[in-house]
Amino acid sequence: MYEKIQETASWLKERMTTTPQTAIILGTGLGQLASEITDSYSFPYSEIPNFPVSTVEGHAGKLIFGKLGGKDIMAMEGRFHYYEGYNMKEVTFPERVMYELGIKTLFVSNAAGGMNPEFKIGDLMVIDDHINFFPEHPLRGKNFPTGPRFPDMHEAYNKALRDEADLIAREKGIRIVHGTYVGVQGPTFETPKEYRMYHILGGDAVGMSTVPEVIVACHCGIKVFGISVITDLGGFDNPVKVSHEEVQEAANDAQPLMTEIMREMIKRS
Ligand code: HPA
């Protein structure tokens, strides 16, 4: 695995004309930010050696390099979900490569179901913490030399970056909420009782990504900032139907505000 990571990083380095220290993962329906990257060049995942091959039609995905908020960045348009059938080493392969490329800060976004009764559809939730419900751990197996065998996770989501997001939201008059993200394997959305259970356990939002990527980034010493776009609400007195289309639509509507916060944070970083 380590050789593969090195090989992929070398392949990219030979072709990169910029030296980003910031990476962004764009979640479901949150691709708009990609169109704001200037001086960009990109590589389809299918062309990058050892990159997992996408299983979902229309989710081909690419790695984009360029400038955002005046800084060199790299962005993943499309991520690898566990429910698609990838193992955890594949799901988190890009973060291992990011480390080799010199990435110091990772911005992650996702669409998530809201369980906190204060939340509304379209809210942006700064991720303060997560609860890992995936059935396989991304660090299972021989330890990678990038970090300790038993990594600390007391501040997986960087506090200074969370504070910065509050400041920017206040300045720009954007409503943001804070909470704990519960990571589950999917692909089913939750039953009403499952939403309720995750909320009782301390979760404010639930989704099918992010947690493995953040764990590996932490293991590599990469600082993380995460935002969930609340695309549906479950678990309350009226069980509601949730669909992928509705999730995409709500994420799409919330994109401009999320993009504004991310851009400003990168500019000030
Ligand atoms: N549950 C799990 N994943 C999700 C949800 C949800 O309600 N909404 C968007 N992704």
SSE order and pairing:
Blueprint: H1 2-15, E1 22-26, H2 32-35, E2 38-44, E3 62-68, E4 71-77, H3 88-91, H4 93-101, E5 105-114, E6 124-132, H5 159-172, E7 176-183, H6 192-200, E8 205-207, H7 211-219, E9 223-233, H8 244-268
Parallel strand pairs: 1-4, 1-5, 5-9, 6-7, 7-8
Antiparallel strand pairs: 2-3, 3-4, 5-8, 6-9
Characterise the protein shown here:
This protein has 269 residues and is α/β, with parallel strands linked by helices. The protein has a single domain, classed as Nucleoside phosphorylase domain (Rossmann fold, 3-Layer(aba) Sandwich). The protein contains eight helices and nine strands. The protein has helices at residues 2-15, 32-35, 88-91, 93-101, 159-172, 192-200, 211-219, 244-268; strands at residues 22-26, 38-44, 62-68, 71-77, 105-114, 124-132, 176-183, 205-207, 223-233. Helix 1 (2-15) packs across helix 4, helix 4 packs parallel to helix 7 and helix 5 (159-172) packs across helix 8. The longest helix has 25 residues, at 244-268. It starts with a helix and ends with a helix. Hypoxanthine binds next to strand 5, strand 8 and strand 9.
**Which blocks of ≥5 consecutive residues have pLDDT under 50?**
none
Instruction: Specify the helix fraction band.
Output: 25-40%
CATH architecture: 3-Layer(aba) Sandwich
Mean pLDDT level: 92
> Termini separation (Å)?
32 Å
Instruction: Assign the CATH superfamily.
Output: Nucleoside phosphorylase domain
CATH class: Alpha Beta
Count the beta strands.
9
β-strand percent reads: 15-25%
> Which hetero ligands occur in this complex?
hypoxanthine
- CATH topology-level name: Rossmann fold
What is the N-to-C succession of helices and strands?
HEHEEEHHEEHEHEHEH
Number of domains: 1
Report the total helices.
8
Q: Radius of gyration over alpha carbons?
A: 17 Å
- SS-based structural class? alpha/beta
* Major β-sheet strand ordering: 5-8-7-6-9
Major beta-sheet overview: 5 strands, mixed, barrel
Shape: globular
